[in-house]
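Kindly inspect this one:
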Amino acid sequence: MLADPVEELSLQLVKLIRGLRGLHVAVVDAGGHNVEPAALGLLAGLAHTGPTRLSTLAGVMCLDLSTVSRQVPALERNGWVARTRDPDDHRAQLLELTAAGQEMLQSVRRSRAEVLEQLLPDWSPAEVAQFAAQLARFNDDVTAHRSDAISAAVGAVPSRSRTKTPISAGSERA
């Protein structure tokens, strides 16, 4: 454990991000799903927002509009998302989660819960609830302060051309 709690948190977040990739694979394998993490994120976003414009979904998901535009056709081909006319502006379209999309999302959520129960056999329900509450608080704070932190970080980081020793992608301290 590092002496500085913020450094320790940073290290643990890097480990978590790496571990989440493996968790996704385990969830997909456990449920027999063939779905990418990005697709799940958009399905969850649509489940949260309800029918919405592509630009609104991109904003809610903190993604670039072009990224969401590229991902939505695959969701449509799988029958998980459908486009409908916006009743308030007939020139615009809304993205909507289909029944198949809702079922896929629910199925993945069930598989994820099963995998987490297997990964945390010694955690009591109270410990899981406490961790979930702290993680929710963390996520809320990150969301609330993301743009300020990014702006500050971009202003404080020297450009790549001035950086003498780049940090490798595999660094545990990244």
In short: Residues 9 and 73 are 37 Å apart (CA to CA). The first strand starts at residue 81 and ends at 86. The helical segments are 5-31, 37-49, 54-60, 65-77, 99-119, 125-156. The chain is about 65% helix and 10% strand.
